[in-house]
Amino acid sequence: VHGGTFCQPMSQDLEENLPLSNEDAQLYARALALLPAGFEASFNDPFDLKFRSVRGFRLDPDPATSISNSMNSIKEWRQKNKVDELLDQKPPLFAEFHAAWPSRIYGEDIHGHIVNAERLCDLNFEYLMSMDLAQMLVLRAQYFELLETIKRGRDGKRRYKHVYIIDLAGVGSVAWNYFGYSEGRNKLKTVFDVGKCYYIESTWKLFLVNTPTAFRMTWSVIQPWVHERTRAKISILGSDAATNLQAFQEAGLAPDQVPTWCGGKHDGTLIEPLLTSTIASRAK
Hints:
Elements: H1 22-33, H2 39-42, H3 49-57, H4 63-80, H5 94-100, E1 104-108, E2 114-119, H6 125-130, H7 133-152, E3 162-167, H8 173-180, H9 182-198, E4 203-209, H10 215-222, H11 228-231, E5 234-236, H12 241-250, E6 269-270, H13 271-283
Parallel strand pairs: 2-3, 3-4, 4-5
Antiparallel strand pairs: 1-2, 1-6
Helix pairs in contact: 1-4, 3-4, 7-9, 8-9
């Protein structure tokens, strides 16, 4: 999945791999004091939530409250939806969902952040909009659980972020129809909120490539769903392969780690078979 020649050990200076600073540790202690007694002991935290919450909310006006609210919300959501069990079996409509929303893992950057990419032109919006929202949320959460497992389980380094590439080329009128009316927009927003609310601090870099002339319309819809800290990580690229590859390389991504459809040399691996193999391995 992560083949290539540009992979290097993760920088020891990258904050993800460092313990909390004294100031951040004190902030976490203040946040923990706002949570019910025994919160840490009662919560299986598989994905370094402590580090992500503190670093994600430490600049908020009331960071301790923001951290405690986020951690408690994530804990309740995970327990209510039995998220720890999502990689144990295939939910209903597993194959149909991934056929309608194909996602791939490509290479990794010089820090070891995996590259996940999706193409809007490959999404079957008509089918997705016909799905039950609750079922979509389960399947999208399962996708995030796989990404988190891949990021965490590779080389012993703490790594909870990834590179995300979205291809905006060839988005047809069907997609615009669903973005353009409130019911479809609200449904998509709710699905995207799974990552925003429950897998915080997941994005290292976000590249939007092959942005069409009508991108401003898309961005006006998507932008409110994206946290302001994430917005600063966004690079908006056109369709010129040479220019895009330069931008990727400046961000630590060699051509053999980048999707072929945006000028790179990596074919990627579909999420669906990766999920299938993960579920099978956990059943043993």
